[in-house]
């Protein structure tokens, strides 16, 4: 029963906890899908950056262009919305114009275990004042049906190539199988700050920080329309299962959510302090002037 006699009014301003200067806060946005995902990012990325007092933002952009790949124009917009580093996955080559773009835009990375002749890089080192953060993108092979080098040996090679003074290492492991993702956690435990699973578009509730200081989530989810099948219009995607016939897929529009995780990492030893999942609703109708061209 409520205590109505108690005076709940406050006279002093609520105290804002002091920020620990040893800690770097990183936001990771899960696979952004189509126009609804881009609209949500345009409105919520900076808001969430402020809410979490994030020092750095990473987003997976493999589905930004109508669910299939990313165009240079769309990638540039995502940077403008407040993203510092963009990762990707098996859809990275869906748009031809990404090939010349990824050769010079080093802040957009592709899975490191594609053949070395593929354009672009599998890692990027983001510099923030006195702190360096290595972001590495690698793709799983189980159920992926793509010819790729071993993700485990590849990530080992990427880590070995990093300068000694880089303590913070964040892996976007783009993979289908939870077993392969957990395998990567055990393989890298204590050697990297975080392993964030992407690709399935379904957020998992298995986030944790290991005793050795590695943050992990099996899949960060999807930034896009959740009234869908993995972001695609249900009638088309379901039709594929019901008929076995190929069907052109396009991004859905309803129940838009922004999904991802917030990481807190010690700047000096690279150990993760915490990982927090977020899943925020977004109604495009509630915001005036949301301009996004294309699907
Ligand atoms: Fe995806
Ligand atoms: Fe994918």
Topology summary:
Elements: E1 23-29, H1 34-51, E2 56-60, H2 72-80, E3 85-87, H3 98-104, E4 123-128, E5 131-139, H4 151-160, E6 168-174, H5 178-188, E7 194-198, E8 208-209, E9 215-217, E10 224-227, H6 234-243, E11 254-266, E12 272-282
Parallel strand pairs: 1-2, 2-3, 5-6, 6-7, 7-9
Antiparallel strand pairs: 1-11, 4-5, 8-9, 10-11, 11-12
The chain binds fe (ii) ion (2 copies).
The site of one fe (ii) ion has 6 residues, from loops.
Structural description of this entry:
The chain has helices spanning 34-51, 72-80, 98-104, 151-160, 178-188, 234-243, and strands at 23-29, 56-60, 85-87, 123-128, 131-139, 168-174, 194-198, 208-209, 215-217, 224-227, 254-266, 272-282. Strands 1, 2, 3, 10, 11 and 12 form a 6-stranded mixed sheet that branches. Strands 4-5-6-7-9-8 form a 6-stranded mixed sheet, with helices on one face. It has 6 helices and 12 strands. The site of one fe (ii) ion (FE2) has 6 residues, from loops. One fe (ii) ion is lined by residues 62, 89-91, 174, 199.
């Amino acid at each position: 029963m409520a205590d109505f006699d108690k005076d709940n009014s406050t006279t002093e301003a609520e105290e804002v906890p002091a920020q620990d200067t040893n800690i770097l806060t990183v936001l990771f946005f899960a696979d952004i899908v189509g126009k609804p995902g881009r609209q949500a990012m345009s409105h919520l990325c900076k808001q969430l950056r402020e809410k979490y007092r994030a020092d750095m933002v990473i987003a997976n952009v493999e589905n930004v262009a109508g669910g299939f790949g990313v165009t240079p124009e769309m990638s540039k917009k995502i940077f403008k919305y407040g993203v510092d580093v963009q990762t990707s996955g098996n859809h990275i080559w869906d748009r031809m114009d990404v090939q010349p773009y990824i050769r010079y835009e080093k802040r957009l990375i592709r899975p490191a275990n594609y053949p070395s002749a593929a354009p672009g890089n599998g890692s990027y080192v983001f510099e923030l004042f006195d702190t360096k953060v290595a972001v590495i993108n690698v793709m799983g092979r189980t159920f992926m049906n793509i010819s790729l080098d071993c993700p485990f040996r590849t990530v080992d090679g990427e880590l070995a190539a990093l300068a000694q003074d880089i303590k913070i290492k964040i892996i976007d492991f783009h993979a289908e199988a939870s077993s392969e993702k957990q395998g990567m956690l055990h393989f890298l435990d204590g050697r990297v700050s975080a392993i964030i699973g992407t690709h399935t578009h379904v957020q998992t509730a298995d986030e944790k920080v290991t005793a050795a200081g590695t943050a992990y989530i099996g899949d960060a989810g999807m930034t896009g329309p959740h009234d869908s099948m993995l972001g695609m219009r249900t009638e088309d995607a379901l039709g594929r299962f019901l008929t076995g016939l190929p069907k052109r897929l396009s991004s859905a529009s309803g129940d838009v959510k922004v999904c991802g995780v917030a990481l807190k990492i010690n700047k000096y030893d690279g150990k993760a302090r915490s990982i927090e999942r977020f899943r925020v609703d977004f109604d495009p109708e509630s915001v005036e002037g949301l301009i996004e061209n294309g699907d």
